[in-house]
Structures are given as structure tokens and as C-alpha cells.
Amino acid sequence: MLAHLSVNNFAIVKSLQVELNPGMTTITGETGAGKSIAIDALSLCLGCRADAGMIRQGEDKVDIVASFIIEHNLSAKRWLEDNELAENEQCILRRVVSKDGRSRGFINGNPVPISQLKSLGQRLVSIHGQHAHHQLLKKEYQINLLDDYAGHSNLIAHTQKRYQTWRQAENTLKQIIQNSEQNQAQKQLLEYQIKELDELMLTEHEFSELETEHKRLANSGEILGLTQQSLDLLSENEQYNALSMLQASINCANQLSELDPQLSEISQMLGDALIQAEEANSELRNYFDSVDIDPAHMQSVEARFSQVMSLAKKHNVLPEDLYTHHQQLSAQIEALDCSDEKIEQLTQQVSIAQENYIKSAEKLSKSRKRYAKELNKLISNSMQQLSMEQARFDIQINFDSKFSSPLGADDVEFLVSANPGQPLQSLAKVASGGELSRISLAIQVITAQKVETPSLIFDEVDVGISGPTAAIVGKMLRSLGESTQILCVTHLPQVAGCGHQQMFVAKKMHSGHTETSMTMLDSEQRVGELARLLGGSEITDTTLANARELMAA
How many CA atoms lie within 13 A of 291 on its CB side? Predict the structure, then answer.
């Protein structure tokens, strides 16, 4: 539930601190005092669109903080945990709007995108505005009301997913058929390019090995000369070679170690060097003997190397990337395969996807019809309580594939018969302004009972209602407030008197500026405010007595 609301520099509000309680809280005040201003500020904190015009004149920014207790709100707790924003059983939302138009959002002190404020806000508060009866005439609003009441979020998500799969498959098939000629021309070009590469038959690591072999063969004369020179220096020069000189040095070191034992390690080090030199000499000899300069092999390697380099240049890629380029071209031509077989395969996929979507849409439609029957009875009874004694309400649902959409294939329309003998017709055709307000209120009260959000706000939804009907509305809302936190902005004393508690909104001038305040009323103050609502500017003993009767009722 909403526990506290802090509003600073919003519209005509300088500073407002509101503590809120469970049950039904009614909000009243004089016309123009700003009874709905706290609701508007809360809406901003919950992620509604912001602009610099909301900032109080002369101030730099709007700062709104809403604190919620979410001990029993599993949906909000799960959302906070999933987004790593959980903090005990409390949830604090904050919205700051600067004069330059910048807007910042915070959840439990953590900066978040405004979209996250909105996503979480939908799990905390449900706001029913005073213009809901106008929205009620829109078909998309009607189907959303029915789905919200029925709790169809999972069914709709499943239907949406299957709808997207169907449409994507359909678009893919359509695109392939439309572009078949263009694809065919591109395919012919790719086939020509791939033919050369297929004939080359270059393997994945072949160029790297070929490049190494080509370099070795191209420099074979120099390699043999340097190898022979190394062998001469190491062992084959009869006058001077490294091995004989090392051996002579070892002999001298041995004699030195006999004269001075401290030099014995030098003899060992020279012996190790001799062994290394002999092994190197042996490796060089073996390599030299193995080198076979075969002109035919050299010619073959040169031809293969030149062929790879030429094709790489022709395809404008590096020779080491030619193999990968070949694979990519092959994948492209596969994607452009517009054969009858592939089109037939895709056509079958479209058909299967459409069948899956229709199954989901039919399941959704069946559930809608079941809950529609339930709503028809509840809303008809509620309308009859609101001084429309013979009224009938009916939700008409027609399943038709031409209505296919992510929300299913239903044409949903709210029908009503407001008077005896009158046939069921669409709301726009039969309902007057006052009747539409009552129908809207009946629908909102009934559907609110199934909403999971723990706080419901009704912002002057009782417009166009008076007398005994207003008293019934108040009792409906109070009954709803027994299990859910209700905030109700109203101008009707019959509704205001039904609240578990009541707040009064006042507007006053201070230092040339208008300021709005909200005060929780005690019992006597409530009587006085109800008397004002009943009698206007002149409060008499009769109006006070009537106010006390309202409170007692």
C-alpha cells in the first residue's frame, strides 16, 4: 500500500507531506483547490510523461517521493528481486524533473530508467481517472478491461508469440517470392564466383602451409649455401673449425684443473658446449642431406601459390581469407535458394504457424467468453443498484480470423440496454452522459475487485452522479476498501462520508504565491466538511445534522 507521499515544487504545491492509511480515504476540497494534484504528482512518480511546465513558478525542479509497504505484494517484490533493487519490505520511488526538461528516476535510491518506474508502478497502484467513461467507448479499452479482469496476461503473451512467429514466416515467404527474379540474377553471379573456388579446392589451412613451402623453395639455393657454410665453420674446415677448437680448449682446461682444482667447472662447461655443437652439426648435416631441389615440385608449388594469389586478388580478399570467403559465398547462395521445394517448405511452415496461432487465439477467446458471462451478471447487477433498475449489460465476442492480431482474433464490444424494452446496443448509441458515467463506475468497481495492485485510486469517477445513487457508490467503494487501499477524490458528500478517513485540500495565498495543502480531518472536522459539501457556503444546524447522519450511516 501507499504509505507516504512527498511532493515539492509541483504545480501550485510548494511542499506537501501526506501520510496515508489502509482502507478508504476520501479527498475533498473547494473547486479549484487542487484535489487531484496529489494524484497527478503520484502519477508522475510512477513514470508518467513529464515536462518543465510542471515545475512551480520560480523553482528549479520538481521532486516527488512515494513510499510503499510491499509486505504482501508478491508481484512487486518479485519484480524488485529480478531487477536487483529489493530492499526489505519497503519500496521507495522518486522522480526529479529539472527546469531544463531532464527527468531522473530512482527506486530504493538507485538511479533507473523512467520505463522501470512505470513497470514497477503498474504493480503498486491502479488509477481510475475521471475520463474513464470516454475511454470506455473505445474497443481497445474494452478488450483490455476484460483481459485485466480475467488475468489473461499469460494467455495473451503466448498468443502474441505465436502471432509474431506466424507473421514472420509469412513475411519471409512473401519476400522470397517477390524477390525471386532478383535473387536468381544474384545467384547466377554467386555460382560463377563459387565455381572458380570449387575448382581451386583450397582447404582451410592450406595457404599457410603453401606459403611456408613456397618461401622455402624460392630460397633453397641460399638455404643450402648457408647450411654448407655453417657445416664448414663447425666441423668440415680442415684448418679451423669450431669442434676441433672446442676440443683443444677442453684439453687445456683439463690441464688447468689439474694445476688448480677451482677451474674444474670450466672444463665441464666446455664439454657441454662441445656436446651441443656436435648435435647442431649432426642436425645441419641431416638437413643438408635431406634437401632435394626437385624442379617439378618447385614448379607445382609455384603454380598453386600463384593461382591462390590471383583468385584472392580477383575476389578482393587477402589470400589467407580466401577459404573463409568461399564458405561465405556458399552460405549466401544457400540463403538465395528460391527453388519450388524451398517455397513449398516455407508455405508449409506458414500454415503450421497460422494453425498454432489460431489454437492460441481460440483458447483465449474461450476464456474471454467465460469471464464475459461472469462480468455481464456482475455489471448488470451493479448498474441496477445505480438507479438503472432494468439495465442489462452484455459483452459480445465474435471470433473471426479477419480480426487476427497479437491480442487474438476476437471482436469485443460492450453492449447495454439502459431501459426496459430497449434492445442491446453499443454504448455510444444508447448511453447518455450520466448513464455512461454510472456504467463506467460500475465496471471500474467490479473489475477493481480482481486487480492485484494493492492501491486503487478513483479520481472524480462519480461525476454525473447524485442523490441515492451517490450513497450506493460510496458504499461500494467502502466495501472495496475493506480489503484494498482506496483513495477517492470526490465532490459528493454521500461518497466522502463513506471513507474510513477523509483529507481536505485547501488553497491559499502566501507572499503573493498560491499554495495547496492537504490535511487529515478528525471526526468533527469531517462533519464540518460534509456540511459544506451538503449546504455550500452557508452551514446550518440542519446541514450539520445531515452531515452527522451521513457519518453514522
Answer: 20
Q: All 3 cell numbers of residue 209?
A: 602451409
DSSP of 429-497, one letter per residue?
A: HH--HHHHHHHHHHHHHHHHTT---SEEEEESTTTT--HHHHHHHHHHHHHHHTTSEEEEE-S-HHHHT
CA dihedral 328, 329, 330, 335 (to 10 degrees): 90
User: Which one of 90-99, 200-209, 279-288 scores highest in mean pLDDT?
Assistant: 90-99
User: Using an 8 Å Cβ cutoff, are 386 and 469 in contact?
Assistant: yes
Amino acid at 104: R
3-class DSSP assignment, residue 110:
strand
The grid cell for 162 is: 505465436
Task: Give the tens place of pLDDT for each residue, 125-179.
Answer: 888 776 666 677 888 888 988 998 898 989 999 999 999 999 999 998 888 777 6
- Asked if 20 and 457 touch (Cβ cutoff 8 Å), the reply is no
User: What stretch of H or E contains 105?
Assistant: strand 103-107
Q: Is the pLDDT of residue 431 over 60?
A: no
Kindly give, in sequence order, each residue whose CB lies less than 8 Å from that of residue 402, ignoring residues fewer than 6 positions away: none
Do 233 and 241 form a contact (C-beta atoms < 8 A)?
yes
Tens digits of per-residue pLDDT, 392-420? 999 999 999 888 999 999 999 999 987 77
Q: Please, what is the angle between helix 340-385 and helix 153-178, to 10°?
A: 150
List the one residue out of 341, 361, 346 whose CA is nearest residue 171: 346
C-alpha cell at 541: 444546524
Longest dimension (CA), the chain: 140
Nearest-angstrom CA–CA distance, 21 and 39: 15
Task: With CA atoms as reference, report the closest residue to 116 among 46, 171, 178, 184.
Answer: 46
Q: Which residue in 487, 549, 377 sits closest to 125, CA to CA? A: 487
